Amino acid sequence: xxxxxxxxxxxxxxxxxxxxxxxxxxxxxxxxxxxxxxxxxxxxxxxxxxxxxxxxxxxxxxxxxxxxxxxxxxxxxxxxxxxxxxxxxxxxxxxxxxxxxxxxxxxxxxxxxxxxxxxxxxxxxxxxxxxxxxxxxxxxxxxxxxxxxxxxxxxxxxxxxxxxxxxxxxxxxxxxxxxxxxxxxxxxxxxxxxxxxxxxxxxxxxxxxxxxxxxxxxxxxxxxxxxxxxxxxxxxxxxxxxxxxxxxxxxxxxxxxxxxxxxxxxxxxxxxxxxxxxxxxxxxxxxxxxxxxxxxxxxxxxxxxxxxxxxxxxxxxxxxxxxxxxxxxxxxxxxxxxxxxxxxxxxxxxxxxxxxxxxxxxxxxxxxxxxxxxxxxxxxxxxxxx
Length: 386
What we know:
- By secondary structure, the chain is α+β, with helices and mostly antiparallel strands.
- Helix content is about 40%, strand content about 20%.
- It folds into 2 domains: about 65-260, Alpha Horseshoe (Serine Threonine Protein Phosphatase 5, Tetratricopeptide repeat), CATH 1.25.40.290; about 270-385, Sandwich (Immunoglobulin-like).
- It contains 16 helices and 9 strands.
- The longest helix is centred in the first third of the chain and has 15 residues, at about 50-65.
């Protein structure tokens, strides 16, 4: 089963994008050989994965720019388009192609003589596309100096720079190198950013905290409670941060996180009915129905877990999906329904026909489990398992 969608790497890095980059550089540096640069890049680009493409373009830049590092960076900065609109609160993440500029800085400029110059360059580049991966090279090489610099940048006027301070220091930043610092090292930075007016920044703060929950969940709960008590962020935005930051803790039923979310953890809640079809066709939807009841008035967070079959035929992959937060009146049934897509062209995982399992989580605790079969052809009959 193959996807008909264009691979992400081809959407972000292709001949048109490389030619755009060459034209921008050529417009400020006459000696830059645009056609030769494009042909060299394209000679290998299609065979490389996304991060490999970033590095490859930066290596090609090195061969076509002035050999003096600072002179080359001045060319790159002059070639940059205008910054992302600083008046926006979200939705303008920039153009991935400029990740090659920050990659160049990290590769060539991470030396004691150039560290301040290089960080200043990354600050400028990040307003066009995040330098979150490249900044980590400097954090690992010069942790005190770089972290202090980022602490100062938390008050920068451009929200992309403020976001970099949180995103670049995330303990588990996707697609990025690991940091040598303790997982809680970024908390002083987050203390300055949680009250930010920009969702692009507060989403990063929440994701950063969610990373920390993997190693120090209590520190996250304590930090969120302290922020709530401060009154420095609006209630709706802080509620968003709390929900997003504790999503992993909720999945495992962490008591402190549930209490922070205002969910009852002591009141007994039971699943009285859980229905899924026994068979479902590939490229259709799996309908599910969950009925729960509490003995007292309470709040409940209901999620579900799909255990996917791997290529070996075993249930080797587990994914938690959000369902709903609900208010349960004492002694009354509440039913939640959902249709979960079963697609063959998913970009995140391959779906194999055969046996799968699905569980209901109520406040992070497994309350019911069912199995179902995915098959290629339309089932002739559909028996509900109850």
